[in-house]
Specification:
By secondary structure, the chain is an alpha/beta fold. The chain has 2 domains: about 270 residues, TIM Barrel (Alpha-Beta Barrel), CATH 3.20.20.100; about 80 residues, no CATH class. Helix content is about 45%, strand content about 15%. It has 16 helices and 10 strands. An 8-stranded parallel beta barrel has the order 1-4-5-6-7-8-9-10, surrounded by 6 helices. The longest helix has 15 residues. About 40% of the residues are buried.
């Protein structure tokens, strides 16, 4: 299917590949800005120009990195910058303007091409956005020229998505988590979310197309399905081509952490090929195979880590458990965990405060999963 035409909705042509700045390369806990600059250069030279960050990414330093690697080094009209307003940082009305000014100061961008209310879902986030009339606020910022296009990222139910769209027809685009593994996930239900947006002709920006890297590192049997059809093609390219073949998808964000990931993604999108019928069938087969072994649906966003009082690296604990579920006799998983707890808290250190569950976009029962992990690993 051909992609929908979005030129009549936006003042600039949207690139198919977006640079997600949530998983930038780090060394000793700090963003490696020189490497980020090199990756930005390669991305821009390939003809792409959409950068996605957020107030909370990398503990607040992602927006600063966008300022250093993009804003200071390229003409403002040559790129598009997106960032997000976090409900959980808003405790009074004055916080909204303070955060927005912080974002302008961090990036030095002057304005944001795309601005999102971050992570709308059932519960507190949406209530905060409504309490402070932040949809109307977004339109005011558009009128001031501080925002070019206004939308939201979404981690809620299909029913809530319909309500938000009905209540706020002013929204220009929606960002959702969507990949071939999550389209039938009973918690994420991204297939239904996508269908709602396509039927309403609302442009979709995709996050987690490779599911936090999971779909780039498939078990051997699943990987062989793809290799037999397209020898030498990366597993990540299959995941990206699946998402890119959906007509309502405007831009696909990839959180590229290495130069190799950047090169592979550019290769996928430089001469993009939608999936053939045979390839669509292969993706369906791999999806079925993946869910034979239940996995913890963590995407490694690390929202849970910043506020954990016991400093547990929860996504890494879950990655260990997922590997053990697939390969119970592989000693390397427990060896990895032994190294992990030298620099972070053990799973058994969890005090069940619930901070992690309150911010998890996947709505995982983190406390119970950490109890399971503690029994296995500690």
């Amino acid at each position: 299917m051909d992609r929908m035409v979005f030129d009549n909705k936006f003042d600039r042509k949207m690139p198919h590949l977006g640079f997600g700045m949530m998983r930038l390369p780090e060394k000793d806990g700090k963003i490696e800005i020189d490497r980020v600059c090199e990756m930005v250069d390669r991305y821009m030279e390939a003809g792409f120009n959409y950068f996605d960050t957020a107030y909370i990414y990398h503990g607040g330093h992602s927006e600063e990195a966008a300022g250093e690697a993009v804003v200071k080094r390229y003409p403002r009209e040559s790129f598009m910058l997106a960032t997000k307003l976090p409900a959980w940082e808003i405790h009074k009305e004055e916080d909204v303007e303070r955060i927005f000014q912080d974002q302008l100061d961090r990036t030095g961008a002057g304005y944001f091409d795309f601005y999102l209310l971050h992570s709308i879902e059932e519960g507190n986030n949406y209530e905060v956005y409504e309490k402070y009339n932040l949809f109307r606020w977004g339109l005011q910022k558009k009128a001031e020229g501080k925002i070019k296009h206004f939308g939201f990222s979404f981690h809620g139910s299909p029913e809530l998505l319909v309500k938000v769209l009905d209540d706020h027809p002013e929204v220009e685009f929606v960002q959702i988590q969507y990949n071939y593994a999550d389209r039938t996930n009973p918690v994420v239900r991204s297939g239904k979310l996508y269908d709602i947006l396509e039927k309403r002709n609302i442009p979709v920006i995709i996050m987690e197309p490779i599911r936090g890297g999971m779909l780039a590192n498939l078990p051997e049997e699943e990987g062989e399905v793809f290799e037999s059809i397209r020898p030498g093609a990366s597993q990540a390219s299959w995941a990206l081509r699946f998402v890119g073949s959906r007509p309502a998808v405007m831009t696909i964000l990839s959180g590229m952490s290495t130069e190799d990931q950047m090169a592979d993604n550019i290769n996928t999108f430089r001469n993009f090929e939608p999936l053939s019928d045979e390839e669509e069938a292969a993706v369906d087969k791999v999806t079925e195979m993946l869910f034979r072994t239940p996995q913890i649906g963590c995407t490694g966003c690390r929202y849970c880590c910043d506020g954990c009082p016991m400093q547990i690296s929860i996504p890494d604990v879950f990655r260990t458990i997922n590997t053990l579920r697939r390969y119970p006799d592989d000693w390397r998983s427990k060896n990895f965990y032994s190294g992990l707890v030298q620099r972070s808290g053990r799973a058994s250190a969890c005090i069940a405060c619930g901070q992690c569950e309150g911010v998890c976009p996947q709505h995982l029962p983190v406390i119970e999963l950490l109890k399971e992990a503690a029994e296995i690993l500690d």
